Each structure stands twice: as structure tokens, then as C-alpha cells.
């Protein structure tokens, strides 16, 4: 694991966007196309703002979420809504979106359909992840109902219900995340830095982010 510390989060977001763009260009040069997975939540918005303005062959890029809350796009909690507002605009409007949500009461009803859409775009070329102070990443939460399947199973997508998550989640499995050789984790603040340090000595069951640290680059700023 590489740890990169920045003087402030603004510099971090710009540098991270540039790195992601470079890695997407490299994947396109090597394979003729690229696939990118990004998180939702409150941290990555500024990365998307910068990345969306960068010129590259976005029409050769397929983008998916690392995880989604099982809510319609119109919900303010929708990660899809976040991407459509802040990533799929400007240059990146030409990218192709692979959804992790479809209209249904619960994610289990749509798992097969959604997984089939993702399959042609795996392994992922580039992955950006967030992390919670509880050391979850994507929607792989400690104490979640299908934590073992998400950490140790062969499924691409796992439906999760976790203590503290207001709605059902759907998440890429640790296997899918580990299969990407270009993996970045972006965190802000002293609490998350301490949680990341703690996670390095815990099991993935206790600290799910531990399952994706090997080979990852962690980007951190105090604020
Ligand atoms: O749906 C989500 O919330 C994200 O996809 C999730 O994986 C996020 O990366 C962590 O929960 C950290 O969230 P913050 O960046 O808001 O702290």
C-alpha cells in the first residue's frame, strides 16, 4: 500500500483526478477501452468536478459505481444522481454508464440483470474507493448481513443490509475490487487516517477496507 499525504484536499482532488485520467488513457492505449469504478458519498465530488473536465477518449470509457444505495436516481441519496450531476458532464459526458440500480423493491430482484451488464467490462481498469470511519469501503460494512459473501465470494455484486445504512445497498465484491491493478482510496480527516492505520492490523471481517489495501494507493489530506 502506498500512502500519499497532501497539504490540503483541494490539491489532492486535482492530483487524484489527473492520476485517474492518466491511468484511463493508459488502459485505452493498451486495450482500446477502459472501465472505471468510483464511489458515491460526500468525498469524491471534487474529484469528479476536475476529472469531468479532462480531455480523453471518454467514449471508450465505461463507468460504474463501487456501490449504490437502493434508492431511485431522483433521491438525494442516490450515488447515480451524484455521478450524473458531477461526473457525466463536460468532457466526461461522453462516457458510458453501467448502473448498479434498477427499479425494483429490493436489489436481489435485479442482481442477475445488473451483473450481466457489468461482466463484459471486468476486470476494472481503474478503481477509486472511499472509506468510512468504521473502516467500510464500497458498501462492504462490518456487521453487514452478507459480509462473508462480499469479502470471500465469487459474485460480482452483493446485496447488503448493514447496521446504520438507512437503505439496502448493492456493492461490488472485494474480488472485483482486488482484481483491478490500479486501485485508489481517497480519505479526508484525522479520524479516517487513524481508522486506516488501525485497519492494517485487523481482519477484513473487522475492517473491510483491509481487503483492498494491498497494492492500493491511499490519498489523504487533513482537510
Ligand atoms: O455510498 C456511499 O456512501 C459510498 O459509495 C461509500 O462507499 C463511501 O465511499 C463511504 O461510505 C465513505 O463515504 P464519505 O465519502 O461520505 O465519507
From TrEMBL:
Pfam families: Glucosamine_iso. The keyword Repeat does not apply. One of its GO terms (biological process) is carbohydrate metabolic process. GO terms for molecular function: 6-phosphogluconolactonase activity. Keywords: Hydrolase. PANTHER family: 6-PHOSPHOGLUCONOLACTONASE. Its EC number is 3.1.1.31. It catalyses: 6-phospho-D-glucono-1,5-lactone + H2O = 6-phospho-D-gluconate + H(+). Pathway: Carbohydrate degradation; pentose phosphate pathway; D-ribulose 5-phosphate from D-glucose 6-phosphate (oxidative stage): step 2/3. Hydrolysis of 6-phosphogluconolactone to 6-phosphogluconate. InterPro entries: 6-phosphogluconolactonase_DevB (IPR005900), 6PGL (IPR039104), Glc/Gal-6P_isomerase (IPR006148), NagB/RpiA_transferase-like (IPR037171). This is 6-phosphogluconolactonase. Belongs to the glucosamine/galactosamine-6-phosphate isomerase family. 6-phosphogluconolactonase subfamily. It comes from the Bacteria. Residues 8-220 form the Glucosamine/galactosamine-6-phosphate isomerase domain.
Amino acid at each position: 500500500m502506498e500512502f500519499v499525504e497532501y497539504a490540503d484536499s483541494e490539491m489532492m482532488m486535482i492530483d487524484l483526478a489527473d492520476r485517474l485520467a492518466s491511468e484511463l488513457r493508459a488502459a485505452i492505449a493498451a486495450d482500446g477501452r477502459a472501465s472505471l469504478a468510483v464511489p458515491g458519498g460526500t468525498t469524491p465530488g471534487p474529484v469528479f468536478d476536475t476529472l469531468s473536465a479532462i480531455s480523453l477518449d471518454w467514449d471508450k470509457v465505461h463507468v460504474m459505481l463501487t456501490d449504490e444505495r437502493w434508492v431511485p436516481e431522483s433521491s438525494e441519496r442516490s450515488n447515480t444522481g451524484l455521478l450524473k450531476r458531477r461526473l457525466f458532464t463536460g468532457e466526461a459526458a461522453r462516457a458510458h454508464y453501467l448502473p448498479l440500480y434498477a427499479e425494483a423493491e429490493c436489489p436481489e430482484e435485479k442482481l442477475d440483470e445488473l451483473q450481466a451488464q457489468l461482466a463484459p467490462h471486468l476486470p476494472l481498469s481503474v478503481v477509486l474507493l472511499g472509506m468510512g470511519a468504521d473502516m467500510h469501503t464500497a458498501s462492504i460494512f462490518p456487521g453487514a448481513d452478507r459480509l462473508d459473501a462480499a469479502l470471500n465470494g465469487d459474485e460480482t455484486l452483493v446485496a447488503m443490509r448493514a447496521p446504520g445504512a438507512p437503505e439496502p445497498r448493492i456493492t461490488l465484491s472485494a474480488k472485483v475490487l482486488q482484481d483491478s491493478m490500479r486501485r485508489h482510496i481517497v480519505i479526508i480527516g484525522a479520524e479516517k487516517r487513524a481508522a486506516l492505520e488501525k485497519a492494517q492490523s485487523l481482519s477484513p471481517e473487522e475492517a473491510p477496507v483491509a481487503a483492498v489495501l494491498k497494492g492500493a494507493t491511499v490519498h489523504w489530506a487533513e482537510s
